[in-house]
Specification:
TIM Barrel, five-stranded parallel β-sheet, three-stranded parallel β-sheet, 36% helix, 12% strand, globular, binds ligand FNR
């Protein structure tokens, strides 16, 4: 079976044993009710359940994208521009999902992307997400726009690795203070999000006249009365500066070009994160699935590359790994998980995607997420 450092997060039957759905007989005592186990992850049904629980304008805030939502609409299909090329007769009996992200060990290469205002989705907010991510052995990136203070989220499941995502929306002094405090609180990396020089226009929010609830906890906002001007627009020079302030490796999130990725790494970034911000910033931009190879070619010898945007299945994840990503992140699936069942819902989403990834890898003759060859995928015709 699997060696000790191997981390298949799937039940044995997923890799081919008896008892799997479609393989067992009705008399089999291992029969289970569908719908709860990782292999029955149904993200469409999960989103429907979340929508039924949330006020419609809040659900729209989470689901929506910018302008005509072209980027949002294309994100998931873009992963299917690629098709898998399975290897046969490779004797894969266990799949290792564990990997290392900037030196932090995780049990799955699927992490939780930073997303704002989590207490609006579930009373447990970011701390619920942190518990869910820890249960799944996944890394969590925590937003500047969190509803819980950064130190409180860091103190939730402190052994489970977390990164702090930095926005420019506050004064220079407050932004620098957040970077410093992130380092002191135990975050393992700082993630400046650079695709938000200004806010995208999210037309669902305009149509709904959406406003945040007055009683939403302020999280990392400055104390009342101390709000200064926004920080000046960031440049490549800020990458090194934030690294020094926080004493953390810097992951630049929101890169969509190889030349930008190379400049980030030259400026001191330890990693770049390919992202369209879930289609919420510029619209009609290139899909993450299409630009990932260009970014990997530009920097992967010197820096880790992560990707998010429309990742909804294990085979999307495997495609991203084949194209050179070290890890992927999910936004909305984690939102729907938290909204429906708090920490358990987040863990179920991560476990379900991880199970699909392991299953697809076994079918493709691959045993280790750390070594998925590029020729595992080919452009679909
Ligand atoms: C986001 N995203 C985001 N990114 C970031 O760097 N800081 C943030 O606070 C937020 N907030 C946020 C809120 C909501 C409601 C969404 C949907 C997204 C972007 C997020 O980190 C990630 O890039 C995308 O969500 C990934 O795409 P999918 O998985 O949602 O398709």
């Amino acid at each position: 079976m699997a060696p000790a450092d191997s981390t298949p997060t799937v039940p044995g039957q997923w890799l081919g044993g008896p008892g799997a759905p479609g393989q067992r007989r009705t008399s089999d005592p291992s029969s289970r009710a569908p719908g709860r186990s990782p292999e029955h992850l149904d993200l469409t049904a999960l989103e429907d359940r979340a929508r039924a629980l949330l006020p419609p304008a809040v659900a729209d805030f989470y689901a929506g994208g910018a302008e005509s939502e072209v980027t949002l609409g294309e994100a998931t299909d873009a992963w299917l521009s690629w098709r898998l090329r399975p290897r046969v007769l490779r004797g894969v009996s266990a799949v290792r999902l564990g990997t290392s992200l900037l030196g932090s060990d995780v049990r799955t290469p699927i992490g939780v992307a930073p997303w704002a205002y989590q207490a609006m989705a579930h009373p447990d907010g970011e701390q619920g997400s942190a518990r869910g991510a820890a249960a799944a052995g996944a890394l969590m990136a925590v937003s500047t726009s969190a509803t819980a203070p950064l130190a409180d989220v860091a103190a939730t499941e402190p052994a489970s690795p977390k990164w702090f995502q930095l926005y420019r929306q506050h004064s220079p002094a407050h932004t620098d203070d957040l970077a410093r405090r992130a380092g002191q609180a135990g975050y393992r990396a700082l993630v400046p999000t650079v695709d938000l020089p200004i806010f995208g226009r999210r037309l669902r929010d305009v149509a709904n006249d959406f406003a945040l609830p007055a009683d939403l906890p302020p999280g990392n906002a400055p104390a009342p009365g101390t709000v200064g001007a926004d920080s000046p627009l960031w440049t490549f020079d800020d990458i090194g500066r934030f690294g020094e302030l926080s004493e953390l490796p810097v992951v630049v999130k929101g890169v969509l070009r190889g030349d930008d990725a190379a400049r980030c790494v030259q400026a001191g970034a330890a990693a770049v994160w390919v992202s369209t911000h879930g289609g919420r910033q510029a619209d009609a931009v290139v899909a993450s699935a299409h630009v990932l190879p260009e970014v990997v070619d530009a920097v992967a010898d010197e820096a880790e590359v992560y990707v998010d945007g429309g990742i909804r299945t294990g085979w999307h994840v495997l495609t991203a790994l084949a194209l050179g990503a070290t890890a992927v992140f999910v936004g909305r699936p984690a939102i729907w998980g938290l909204a429906t069942e708090g920490a358990a819902g987040v863990a179920a989403v991560l476990d379900g995607l991880s199970a699909q990834l392991a299953h697809t890898m076994a079918l493709c003759g691959l045993s280790d997420v750390r070594s998925v060859p590029r020729d595992t995928v080919i452009l679909a015709r």
